[in-house]
Amino acid sequence: MKQTLGLVSLLVRDYDEAIAFYVGILGFALVEDAPVVEQDKRWVVVAPPGSMGSRLLLARATGVEQKARIGNQTGGRVFLFLHTDDFARDYRNYRTRGVKFVRPPKEEPYGTVAVFEDLYGNLWDLLQMKPRARADHRPARNVEVKARVRDLGDVEHRARAFATEGPVDLAQDDTFFACANGRLKLRQLADGSSELIHYLRADDAGPKTSEYLITPTTAPDSLRETLSRAFGAVGRVKKVRRLYIAERTRIHLAAESGNAVARHVMALLGIAESQLVRGAYVDLVATASRSAAPS
Questions:
Q1: Choice between 251 and 219, residue whose per-residue pLDDT is larger
Q2: What is d(CA 123, CA 113) in angstroms, rounded to the nearest whole number?
Q3: Is 22 in the same domain as 97?
Q4: Distances from the Cα of 114 to the Cαs of 39, 54, 117, 126, in angstroms?
Q5: 222 and 106, same structural domain?
Q6: What are phi and psi of 59, to 5 degrees?
Q7: 0.70 surpassed by pTM
Q8: Are residues 232 and 171 in the same domain?
Q9: Are 53 and 86 in a shared domain?
């Protein structure tokens, strides 16, 4: 059995003003615009660029009840969820075109999201999902660079100069567990969400590929206790990260586009090869603790 959701009706005040917004500003494709003569209506269908999924039927409201629902079809909740393959690009373009964002970009366990209003006041999520494990169970991949710098303010100043998004402050509490293959950590975020992350990454300085699997959890405390009993906890790192995004690169978290891009971002930030560090944050904390211990 196979079913698909074909059309979602969106109440509008006027066909042409709606087309001007959804096509002219949001960049949707005008799929169909045909008269329905016997009903004095038009059949107007739009779709996000490149979309093979559901489409929007722009339905002109008639009567008092329908007109009262324009801009508030869900009672103030987010109505529609617009997925993108490049959040920074679309967020920048929409703001340039005057789209009103009512909630700023935020990093969630599932991805990057911001909320905007359409011309009638309906709320939309602009959302880029984080890569997850693929259907064939292969892990997601990115390229990471980690470096120790003397002047964080200077690096942030450089990041601001070419970032397309940010800053966003992320509070993270990571517990690392003994793991025979790669690294295993439980991450808790300030918003209460949590995820178990396993990753394979060489402990080399310089840009390095990381393969990872992320599993959300709603019971982080009991999971931490279970994993600590089973494998042993080897360290806990609490940190606040300030995130900037430059196109497809996450500054301070990870660079996702390959070694060449990673090295280009290093140059823009003024990071030299000699500043690169090996290992994970838990290794840096452990090294610092050993250095501070009395002999």
A1: 219
A2: 13
A3: no
A4: 38, 21, 10, 5
A5: no
A6: -105, 115
A7: no
A8: yes
A9: no
Among residues 35, 78, 87, 26, the alpha carbon closest in space to that of 250 is found at 87
Domain boundary (70, 86, 120) is at: 70
Estimate the crossing angle of helix 259-269 against helix 152-162, to 10 degrees: 120
Range of the domain at 111: 76-130
Question: How many structural domains does the chain have?
Answer: 3
18: left (phi over 0), alpha (psi -120 to 50) or beta: alpha
258 — pLDDT class (breaks 50, 70, 90)? very low
Burial of 40 (0-12, 13-18, 19+ CB in 10 A): exposed
Q: Is the pLDDT of residue 7 over 50?
A: yes
pLDDT at residue number 53: 76
The answer to whether residue 142 scores a pLDDT higher than 80 is no
Among the three residues 26, 48, 70, which one is the final residue of a domain in this structure? 70
As a whole number of angstroms, the distance between CA 134 and CA 156 comes to: 34
Q: What is the largest CA-CA distance in the chain?
A: 91
What is the pLDDT confidence band of residue 256, given thresholds at 50, 70 and 90?
very low
Name the nearest CA neighbour of 207 among 165, 249, 178.
249
